[in-house]
Amino acid sequence: MPPVETAGPRRMRADARQNVDALLDAAKDVFAESGVDAPVRAIAERAGVGVGTLYRHFPQRSDLISAVFRREMDACVDAALEIEAAYPPGEALDRWIMRYTQFVAAKRGLAAALHSGDAAYEPLAVSFSTRLVPTLNRLLESARAAGERIAPVAPGEFLGAVADLCHSGPRSSAEASARAERMVGLLLAGLRA
Amino acid sequence: MPPVETAGPRRMRADARQNVDALLDAAKDVFAESGVDAPVRAIAERAGVGVGTLYRHFPQRSDLISAVFRREMDACVDAALEIEAAYPPGEALDRWIMRYTQFVAAKRGLAAALHSGDAAYEPLAVSFSTRLVPTLNRLLESARAAGERIAPVAPGEFLGAVADLCHSGPRSSAEASARAERMVGLLLAGLRA
DNA sequence: AGCAGTAGCGGAACATTGTTCCGCTTAGCC
DNA sequence: GGCTAAGCGGAACAATGTTCCGCTACTGCT
């Protein structure tokens, strides 16, 4: 049984689709409030369904996490286009990295999920590799083409490192956010050393 | 009831002291194998005691973690003395940071504990602030005194960032270790930009 | 509209793990 | 050797993840 809807041979029943949507909404809220380790029952309850229904659509917690985070990830990728249009290559790189920093900081648990190595997070890792990594790669190449001296670095590795630096404490405070940005800034400086 | 032995008014019974030692040894092994989230029962069993005994000496999981990690932390601090004696200030800084990197990478969960913000990890945070932070501070000042241009940075923040970058996957592979060192290197380069 | 078949639902039941409690054991002291 | 309480072990309870299955009601067909 494929999780959620993988373009299966048959259409999904209408009520089932509604439940999936309700679960995604509920999960987004609960994750934001209590982190990705929140009790499964809390999500099911907020969505107004039984735990069985949750497990039917998202056999693994990671499936739910992946689904919730993927949307936000896409928004971050799209932001790159706007930034590239508005700023010269070097500055665009910095600006997008900061945009990405904020994105990761807002989604507690994303960083941990990303390189947990757990095969269950494959969908997230795939989105990461096919969307975010090429985006950074493009920005790096543009900056290099514009004459900037930028250390050779694997884009995926760099993005992973930035995500690590966004590990904030229990509550994402302004202080933690500032700290993350300072350290990411240091990493960016290192890229140009 | 104070955890472990806090210079209480009365001596601890000899068998109790043995159990504490057995627990610390067991916990060190189990943490290394399965991470700091390993089941409490596994630790108690390996130590050959009941869970009640474990809870008597370490009411919180964090007490056990703190006790286990503190020893290793001290070893890392001591290493700085040797390194400072053997290398010029600038190189000593880099070498010690790498030593610290290896230390953190080996202790999965240390980074998370360090800035979890959880008050329970206070003992660890104290050791961190009183031992590691001054060590880095000394190394930074020495390097600056030797004429190196080093960005102003809070030592604690920097050490926290390095710890974050050591977040390896499930198994601490040579690959993950190499990745961590590359990114820490980038951060060090940023320090001198 | 009415019906049959099945996708999907709900939640009880089970498994794992953290945490507490208390009767029994035994080290430390005289 | 005997007294006393520090300390022990593990049963019992609580929270949470996961599975399973009888029942419901949506969909497609006529």
Automatic annotation (TrEMBL), chains A, B:
A GO molecular-function annotation: DNA-binding transcription factor activity
InterPro entries reported in the protein's UniProt record: Homeodomain-like_sf, HTH-type_TetR-like_transc_reg, HTH_TetR, Tet_transcr_reg_TetR-rel_C_sf, TetR_SbtR-like_C
Q: Which residues form the HTH tetR-type domain?
A: 17-76
Which keywords are on file for this protein?
A: DNA-binding, Transcription, Transcription regulation
- Which residues, as ranges, make up the DNA-binding region of this protein? 39-58
Keyword flag Transcription: yes
Protein name in UniProt? Transcriptional regulator, TetR family
User: What organism is listed for this UniProt entry?
Assistant: Herbiconiux ginsengi
